[in-house]
Amino acid sequence: MKSIVAADENWGIGKDNELLAHIPGDLKYFKENTLGKVLIMGRKTVESLPGGRPLPGRTTIILTKNDNYSPAEAKDGSRVIICNSQDEIEALLLKLKEDEGLDLERDVIVAGGETIYNMFLPKCKEFLVTKICHVLPADKHFPNLDKLAEGGELKLIWESEPVSENGLTYKFTRYKR
Q1: Residue 54 burial (CB < 10 Å; 0-12/13-18/19+)?
Q2: Is 86 in contact with 63 (CB distance < 8 Å)?
Q3: Is the dihedral of CA 170, 11, 60, 71 positive or negative?
Q4: DSSP letters spanning the chain
Q5: Torsion sign (Cα): 113, 6, 132, 17
Q6: Closest CA to 120 of 128, 109, 131
Q7: What is the rounded CA–CA span in Å between residue 97 and residue 105?
Q8: pTM of this prediction?
Q9: How far is residue 29's CA from residue 7's CA, in Å, rounded to a whole number?
């Protein structure tokens, strides 16, 4: 399982249920790395997406405590599955592995928000992080992977050159467990 996130220098990831910044290069990177994959997202994250609907071209597993939740459909009719617990998601992933040959390490990506990231952090083997080289106002955060790397739990394996866009500088990084 992988995790994908854009975070500022303090590992902030969002404010008021929105991304910290609109960075077209990061959105492109997200699309390139998630198209055709299985995304795990919380209800609020899905509702923050354009039109409040799951992203096209992906299977989206939505974790919500609301038993009656019915999300808007993805524009292309992509598969959307509602789960009410982490255990239910894990059982579903095992079933998809068995029935459809899903590669759990390569094809499953945790995509937010804060609670979902924290819940699945121990299960993730790789982290794709767009590091925004600024401190932005945030009320949601991602675990500090640099501290985990210092402790030997993770290793930073790749880092792009800095990119500047929309008045922000950022770089793409990958961490592995």
Answers
A1: buried
A2: yes
A3: negative
A4: -EEEEEE-TT-EEEETTEES---HHHHHHHHHHHTTSEEEEEHHHHHHSGGGSPPTTSEEEEE-S-TT--PPPPTT---EEEESSHHHHHHHHHHHHHHH---HHHHEEE---HHHHHHHGGG-SEEEEEEESS----SEE---HHHHHHTTS-EEEEEPPPEEETTEEEEEEEEE-
A5: negative
A6: 109
A7: 11
A8: 0.96
A9: 14
Identity of the residue numbered 66 = N
Angle (CA) 14-26-28 rounded to 5° is 130
| pLDDT of 138 | 98
Tell me the per-residue pLDDT of 90-130, one tens digit each, with 9 for 90 and over. Answer: 999 999 999 999 999 999 999 999 999 999 999 999 999 99
State the residue for tokens 């609301």.
Answer: 66
Q: List the structure tokens of 125.
A: 């083997």
Q: C-alpha distances in angstroms, 149 versus 90, 130, 168? A: 26, 16, 25
| Low-confidence residues in the chain, pLDDT < 50 | none
C-alpha closest to that of 132 among 175, 173, 174, 168:
168
Nearest CA-CA partner of 38 in 3, 70, 71: 3
Q: Which residue has the tokens 């095992």?
A: 94
**Sign of dihedral through CA atoms 34, 18, 115, 118?**
positive
